[in-house]
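To: structure subgroup
Subject: Chain for Friday's discussion

All,

I'm putting the inputs and outputs inline so they're searchable in the archive.
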Amino acid sequence: MLAFLAVSSPAQTPIDYRITGKVFDESNQGVERVRVCAIPAPADYIKLPQVECALSDSQGNFQIRTGRPSHFRIIAEKSAAGYQSPQYEFYRNPTLAPPPEVTLSETNPTANFSIPLGPKNGALIVTMIDATTNLPVENARISMCQVNNPRICSGGVYKNRDGLFKLVAPHVPFTLRISAEGYEEWWAPNGLGKSNAISVPSGTQIELSSALHRKPEFANRPISEAEKQPLINLPAPVLLSPADRVEFRVYPRHTKLEWQPVEGAAYYLVEIDVCDGRDRELRECVNPGPFSATRNLGPVKVVGTTYEFDFVGRQPGRWRIWAVDGKGQEGFKSPWRLIFYLK
């Protein structure tokens, strides 16, 4: 009889890939609750689309466990306090060095950085009203471009029922253009002059008022909800599902919206927004922006009383519906319903 001796090899200890460091302000003091992220090289991100982040402590120290080797770009931001992410060229401080980069490997699994935040970005508070009714303009597309390099721009669709919008300003002079459905374009600071420049000093806040003039074809048409009238404009649809503030723990994030039919409706418009999802504990919709599975960022036209889509990320979203009659008149909009996607 042959005897076999089993020899067990020692378990291999996983490599702890880590990036540590400190973020500090202009006075060389550490800044707490700065979100620091290690963005992997594109080829590695395609294989595993995951970005690891950490919050700095009360002394400004941070530690990111990347979980893998790669070439990383280190991004630090605390936008709520005025430190915009340098990932966006439009907001980047030209006096600071580019974000640090590092390669972690089996032989070099750790790295340490000191990251200066530099001066805070300024802020621009824009109030938009209808020049005819003095009612707030709730939705608008805002475009900003640097004066010295017009190809460097930022913007998007902004939404606020009070017509009040807070915009982050760059560290250099820029132009600002406002466009909204039914209105003529408006250019800061006085509505005219496409080449007029605006400057917002670092860490300061400037207020700007804009009165948007209607296009002739919208002169007698209701644009805001306050202008719509019962018995003339169709009532808001009754929403059925999902319920308000529901939490979904499924992936893919396939979602089906359902609502009751409205008598006299030729079709419906479905509006879906994506909300800021960086604070995982927050159960509200912050900084809503339009979601669309197509290049069209506006509401989706639907014939019927259901609509299905795949949501974009692990974050909050919201949705609402309104009916359009045979003459093309829009009805009252339903209230917003929130959805929280947790996977």
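Points worth raising on Friday:
Confidence is low (pLDDT under 50) at residues 1-5.
The longest helix spans residues 42-47.

D.
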